[in-house]
UniProtKB/TrEMBL annotation, chains A, B, C, D, E, F, G, H, I, J:
Name of the protein in question: Alkyl hydroperoxide reductase C
GO cellular component terms attached to this protein's record: cytosol
Molecular function per GO: NADH-dependent peroxiredoxin activity; thioredoxin peroxidase activity
The organism of origin for this protein: Priestia taiwanensis
Main localization category: cytoplasm
Domain called Thioredoxin: residue spans: 2-157
Localization (cell): Cytoplasm
Top class in the EC scheme: oxidoreductase
InterPro entries per record: AhpC (IPR017559), AhpC/TSA (IPR000866), Peroxiredoxin (IPR050217), Peroxiredoxin_AhpC-typ (IPR024706), Peroxiredoxin_C (IPR019479), Thioredoxin-like_sf (IPR036249), Thioredoxin_domain (IPR013766)
Cited CDD domains: PRX_Typ2cys
Function according to Swiss-Prot or TrEMBL: Thiol-specific peroxidase that catalyzes the reduction of hydrogen peroxide and organic hydroperoxides to water and alcohols, respectively. Plays a role in cell protection against oxidative stress by detoxifying peroxides.
Length: 187, 187, 187, 187, 187, 187, 187, 187, 187, 187
């Protein structure tokens, strides 16, 4: 089933952020833009570079009114320990959700059932809790958080300017297209 | 269900390429790398810019041993007509598949059922017919084909160098990570 | 199941008419007579001659209070493009419905499931939305719109003159039969 | 379900032809072209004019290698009686099938269940027993057998000339269309 | 299941009587005694002699307050034609029901499914619509309407004289038996 | 379901005949004609007159090659006792079957379930075990065994003279009808 | 399932007692003690001696406030006939129930299904309709009604003296046991 | 369901006899006559007197070739303890089966489900493992083992003398009845 | 399913304690701490030593506000007898529940179905009826009641000091751990 | 269902031991004794003290031929990290299994479904893979590994000395009980 355009399913989970444990539910993702970034496991290889890369964009994303959540099937205890012991992870300021029940990973169709681990999926969710963009890579292929920022901007632009669309390779400030009957079959 | 890591499902469809009609099945996607790029409809707005952008990368992708397929739920007749009449589309040299039975769009979980149109999904498939990367954007948000090239390279690198992984923001030639027990918890 | 005598099933679709896009539902077919003409695909062979032939009768049908709808599983975008680029189709003034969800084609039992295309079916529907006549030909066999006009007249005559019937080969103005007990077994 | 393109379903029935009773099964319809003409009931109003009209074309149809069958849910006894007593029906030379079990009428989707009578449906069936054309009219609207002859000729032409199609209003001898890629989008 | 003692099931059908068409339902059989006489088909062999024989008793049955209905799976149109053309049937004054939907024949368990024809069953039904006597013969064995009259009289006597029974071979006016405990085991 | 034309269902029961107990199964009814006569209960009112009446015809029926069986849901012990103590029943020479399991009464659809007693049904069965005639009367209405003899003769005549039928009121020696196409619609 | 301790199931049946027919239901067994004695069939071998033996105890049982019912699957008509003709049975004054529907025999789990006859079961039922004692013997083994009387007395004693029990071989007047904790493990 | 005439169901259990533990299965009951005597619980009130009474008849029953089994839902350990500590039970020489799984008590339909205890049922089983007699008493009503001996003798007599039956109150040596047709209705 | 943390299921049973019989239900276990100790059978080997050992801790457990229940599938009668006859068991003062219906043993998942006996399971239940600790040993392995006391103390400590936990080998008075975020990953 | 006495269910998982990652399946647990120790989560409170306590007994258990496995729903990566960073855990030499798929925790009925964490369960498994002892504590109550050693010894003694049992509080070297009939009811 296509997840794009659907509202996120209910979940309740414990998370770690800046030295505190907190509970996060699907309701927390409503009312502002969210980026949810799944990765397989704490204390593994590609993951810290991806998460660190995401941290580098966190301020930018915050400025865009976006909250960022990382999710793995580890517990929030493990998230804290990783944060304590890893230099890269120790810099992370966004919310790290623990999903040991596998619920959230199943909700977003990224669970690798035979491993009990999430695939590397990134989701952009609008303030209505509706998924607007999905990117999932097989193990081994890293993601680029700077592209994510562009995509968030495009999604926000489309939401704020109903009736316009962002063409391929669109970047903030570039001209958009205003769909009209005259354009049909003309581009 | 997670599509990453699964083999593509069977399909049979008519396609258009460089002035010819041809039949394409899931078997044609085996034996080399493939990019499958879904879009909603011929003769619409964002689509031609995305497809044109993809054409710009076609030579590069061919050099990487990748075949490119675009798919919409239009017929191959309409693909030909679009190709005949649109300057942007007329440049396209890759294979344009018609999916009026909606089968392929359903196989890749990108069908918007109430519209009968595909969402903007891009899939990288390895020579075994196994999906390695997925990107899907809501209507209005364009894709950037140059990023796709990088992702293909990363996927190929991982396949050709078992035991290494591409960290975040990896680009061709950059150093990769060789997972080893010593690295666990050390990055 | 016999479609004759049944009310048309619900649908909602986008259509193209004289340079405009419009939404059409089954409700739009109520209150006046309708002709619904299915054909396999835009930009194909027999189809334009049939649709052009239908256009030739459009004024006559309008005079009879009949609206005309053509339907294929293409989108309304493609209908517009075809209209823009084909001399024959460019003349069409009636409503061209896009059925990419295949719903209408299934409703009228004309969908060729393995192709995702409609068979060449023509339906006459009365102002109550009830199907009064059906004609379906296999691929390759064209239809003759002038015969359709005669059939519409006969259907209207029967509706307006309850208690009379049109014998074989009846044409407008010819005498009809008034069924009576005396006629039973006498013709 | 679309009947066009499907093989006729099995049946076994008694029939009347030229003073004799005979058994007819679906197998009898194989090996030559057939026209099957349903009508509601013997000794009724429109029916005899339609059946008489069909008789007028019987010689022509026979010359085209077509056998003709009329079917109602009456018995073959009643068919004989009607033939004996009606001047119009007395001229009929083709095969009149009795369908009191309602099986054939159900097979061809023309049974009006609440009446136990067949609707006015005409079917052209090719030598493989596959339905090529259907025409069904609501009660009161007569059929024109001369149009049927044209349609049979078109069906035979298409079968005998694979790769050509008959455009709208085609009549025997008129030029046909040879579908080719070049024609796509050009008519 | 035993039909004796059960109320007749609902039906609605067209019938022919003395030059008129009329609608008959199960409700019409309530309030007076009825005889319902099934036979296979109009224009066949034994049937007319049986139906003629029944007509000979019609006046007597009317005097007993009994209405008579014949039923076959033919239409009422065919009944009229048979009445018009057969000397024997032309004399019939009782109601001839057409059962082309096979409903009534199924209701009374007399339908020969593979033929679509009714077996030769005769039913006596009391003013409550409850079946009091059944007689069914295989094809070829005729019925004797005079015996039917006797049976009707016995059924009426039993209904009008609760507590008495008609012994074997009882005829009107003969003495009946009054069941009493003393008679148990004494006859 | 119509019993006429169906083979009798399997049963096994104890019976009484002329001072002896014997086992009877459905197989015993094969190879010769049979009359099976159900009645409600031994030691009751109408029953003995009916059974006595049947005995009066027993010799005639035997001459016709017919075996006679009476059946009630009493045991064979009770049949013997009734035979011992009733003058009327004491004359009976045919086979009296006990059906305390209610099996045979259910097989012939004559069981009154709420009473555990059989209705007054008479069946004529041919040497193949196929039911040829049924007569069932409500409680209180007696049967006439002499009519039964006529019906048996008619049934035997039809079996022995395939292609002829006995018209209404036929008695032995009377002329029968030879169905032919010429007779259709002529009687 | 254990019948002891359960209330008897509903039934309605005709019975014979001292020259009269009467209706008996399960409700008639409430409010006083009952003995229900099943046997296979009237006019058979062991049965009359058992029933006669039971009659010998009838006065005693009546004095104890017990009503006695015999039950077979014969009808009440047959019970009357047996009573009329058998010297032994003619003495019986208790109620003889007819169970031709097999309902009561099934209720008490004594029906031999393949014979349609009851096994030789005797039941003692208390004034609440609850079964207190069961005895069933295979065919051929007779029962002894005098033992039944003792058992009834014990059942009544236990009901009237809650907290006392009758040891093995207890007879009226003998000392009973008063269960107390001290007796546990002491007898 | 009637247990009389059915073979005992499979079971496997531990038992106690004369200072030893042994396994007993349903197979052990084949090949000789058996008496199976259920009682609620060890160390209770009526039970020991019944079991002691049964022991008094044990020698007699052994002489008749009968093995005796007592069964309660206690364990064989508890049987041994009861045997050790109770004077009455200490005399018992027959086999005391433990049925803590409740299997045997359920097999013989004597389990009081809400208590987990067996009702006071006694069964006589022939050498084929087929149940010939059942006696079950509600709690508080004792059994008399001497009557059991008589019943065993009757059962054995019937088995050894096929064709004879034991009338009511029969005791060993008394004359039996030889069922014959002449006796039907004569006793 | 995990029993820890679930409320005990409903049961009702008879028990023995200090010379009295009493009824115990699941409700009796609410409002105070309980220890429920299952064992296979009275009068067996390991069991008495375990039960005696438990008695030695009974006073201590009582002081801790804990009631103790032993459970086997024996009856309460057998419990009394064992208490009367065994020196070890005779000392027991806690409540000995009889579970002949096997209900409680099934509720606590300790029933060995093929034996009808409970496994050696010990359960600590808090005043809300919620199971806090489980220990089950295979046959032959004894339990140590003194460890049980420690475990009860730990369970009580945790309940009374929310927010503290007892580390491994904790004994009363030893320091506990106060979980805090700082401790995560620090022990 | 009782786990004691059942064979462990299949699983496959990654584990960490002494600086290495290894795969462990249920088959690895066969052929020697095993202790499987579940705990909720790495980097939490009671857990390290329990696991450290278990490590103290590891040498002793190894000497007894026992392999030790700890299991949590964390990954083996997290196990390594915990081992790297925790002084207590860093001493652990036994096998630490990661169960992120929750399979093993479900197999042993210790999964707290709403948390995705295992309860504190310890299992002793014999060389046939059959569970011999279970101990599960609610969160907060620690376990004592020294008791575990005693229980293992008892289990091994029972296995090696069939026919002997270990009484309560048994420790190695203490005398055991040899179950014999004489002992029944004597302890």
């Amino acid at each position: 089933m296509l997840l794009i355009g659907t509202e996120i399913l209910p979940f309740k989970a414990m998370a770690f952020q800046k030295g505190e444990f907190l509970e996060v539910t699907n309701e927390n993702l409503k009312g502002k833009w969210s980026v949810v970034c799944f990765y397989p496991a704490d204390f593994t290889f590609v993951c810290p570079t991806e998460l660190e890369d995401l941290q580098h964009q966190y301020a930018t994303l915050k400025d865009l009114g976006v909250e960022v959540y990382s999710v793995s099937t580890d517990t929030h205890f493990t998230h804290k320990a990783w944060h304590d012991h890893s230099e890269a992870i120790g810099k992370i300021e966004y919310i790290m959700i623990g999903d040991p029940t596998l619920t959230i990973s199943r909700n977003f169709n990224v669970l690798v059932e035979e491993d009990g681990l999430a695939a590397r999926g990134t989701f952009i969710i609008d303030p209505d809790g509706v998924i607007q963009a999905v990117e999932i890579n097989a193990g081994g292929i890293g993601r680029d958080a700077s592209i994510l920022v562009n995509k968030v901007k495009a999604a926000q632009y489309v939401r704020n300017n109903p009736g316009e669309v962002c063409p391929a390779k669109w970047e903030e400030g570039a001209s958009t297209l205003k769909p009209s009957l005259d354009l049909v079959g003309k581009i």
